[in-house]
Design brief:
Membrane topology (chain A): Peripheral membrane protein
Number of helices of chain B: 10
CATH superfamily of the largest domain in chain A: P-loop containing nucleotide triphosphate hydrolases
Number of strands of chain B: 0
GO biological process, one term (chain A): transmembrane transport
Number of strands of chain A: 12
CATH superfamily of chain B: MetI-like
Largest sheet of chain A: 8 strands, mixed
CATH architecture of chain B: Orthogonal Bundle
Largest interface: A-B, 31 and 19 residues
CATH architecture of the largest domain in chain A: 3-Layer(aba) Sandwich
CATH class of the largest domain in chain A: Alpha Beta
Number of helices of chain A: 12
Order of helices and strands of chain A: EEEHEEHEHHHHEHEHEEHHHEEH
Pfam families (chain A): ABC_tran, oligo_HPY
Distance between the termini of chain B: 11 Å
Oligomer: heterodimer
CATH class of chain B: Mainly Alpha
Shape of chain A: globular
Family (chain A): Belongs to the ABC transporter superfamily.
Number of domains of chain A: 2
Helix content of chain A: 25-40%
Strand order of the largest sheet of chain A: 6-7-8-3-9-10-12-11
Radius of gyration of chain A: 21 Å
Organism (chain A): Pararhizobium mangrovi
Amino acid sequence: MSVETVEAGGRANGPANAGSGDGATVLRVSDLSVRFAGQPVDTIDGVSFTLSAGRTLCLVGESGCGKSVTSLATMRLLPEKAARITSGEARFEDRDMLRLSRREIERVRGDRMAMIFQEPMTSLNPVFKVGDQVAEAVARHRKVGRREARERALEMFRRVQIPAPERRLDDYPHQLSGGMRQRVMIAMALANDPKLLIADEPTTALDVTIQAQILRLMRTLQDESGAAMLLITHDLGVVADIADEVAVMYAGRIVESGPVETIFNDPQHPYTIGLMSSMPTLGAPKGRLATIPGSVPSPFEFPPGCRFATRCPFAQTRCFSEVPPFERNDDGHGWACWRTPIETIAEAGGHA
Amino acid sequence: MRSRSLTKLLANPSALFGLALVCFFIAVAILAPILPLDGPAATDWGAIRKAPSAAHWLGTDDLGRDLLSRMVWGARASLMAGVVSVFIAVVVGVPFGLVAGYFGGWVDQIISRIVDALLSTPFLILAIALAAFLGPSLTNAMIAIGLSAMPVFVRLTRGQVLAVKTEDYVEGARAIGLGHGRILARYILPNVFAPILVQATLTVATAIIAEASLSFLGLGQQPPAPSWGSMLNTAKNFLDQAPWMALWPGIAIFLVVIGFNLLGDGLRDALDPREI
């Protein structure tokens, strides 16, 4: 089992944040492993990362690599019978989220730690007015009356820039567009001023122009509140837009992590390099868009060593049998690969 | 959303017809005490088994009782039996279905196996057995019918909950820190309610027939109080001499059942979110 560490906080050249307590560690996940019922190995294996106030960590990877499972495990939203947390710790405000009782965890969720989901179209209860749903999130965690909760909902609608907020409070979800619903979801998540916001592909279901608006809004609100944000995405455009730190996941392990510029300019892990070159760019097309051949293997087919070995053009015998250690340099840039730096292979003639 | 469903319901002619029938019988049942009628148990030895006439619009029965009055008061027994027994079935069945579907596991296993066992017995046979066990009275007949109809609601609710509990908004509710009770009450129940309402409306029709059957067998409404089923029971002895005695309760049962069925079908269409 590998232990990978990502230091997402304490970056000197990060954007200035107005929020208080900037840089203080909010969430420290260490050695998190999750095993699904009936599977031979831990699907999520030894994931570690740290998240600081006012910072955004993007968890990147293709579908099925375990990004969402990692975040759901942190929130303790995984179905306990089907997905067992086999090791690790998720320290949030001096308490290990993975060891809290159900009641304690329900008190934290939606209050100190909130979540935004991918599908705004289905994430709101269709039978209640959206204002009441936001008010419910407030009333759950604060000792307020109906009117105060509604006032707070209205205030949140204003903050997420919903036009005509007084009228929108009494709308049902189906009366709102996808972008508006996602604003409502954000209002609900931020209603109790959480210290940590987990956003699971918050813009994937929206069209591109709305995506940019929502991202900008989230960034603004985060600057105002100083909350830490864990953003899960497969969209490298979003990452470039919003991330301070990036952690790249492949098949349940973090393979590379570091400050956003470093990951984009100097990726080290072959998987990260593959991801970067499969991103389309503006301008005249130059040949075919690069792809990584094959797909993520099932947990039954994971090699004992590096899980990317089956698709890696640089893999050697050792890659299949031994798990590469996650090593980090002084810049906070770390990766887990036996073959780096890749440049040396290329110069030596690249016996892939 | 609700108003859209209502508009759809009111635009459906057969549903409207059903609604009108149901409303008519409910109005008759409610107005029974203030209608200018003889008492339903008042006998007149001078007018035994008389055909419909100006004095007795629907004729009289073998004891000279006014059939119109008995039909009107009988509507109370029939409708009450239909509605109350379905109410019992819903109040008992829906919570079991919610718990079974939401929590799953051994709770679900136990509830579902009991429901399977109950469903393996034909509805009316079960109702007759329960009513015979509880003793003949209208109240016991309603309890028996309610309990016999309950398994359908458990199974229906459970199935709906299984579909709804994986919805994103239920996970969202957990993410804002709501507990199981609140999620069940505010997020699950309202979203499984439409099919339950449709099933309940349709089951009222079944329950009315069941009450008539139990009363026909002497397990429901006890004489001299009238119900349509017990009136049929008496009427069967005089089919040659006084066929009208059987005709009116038969027509009434037919109409009220078709009314509830049309209304239920209309509700199903109106509440179906897939159709605009």
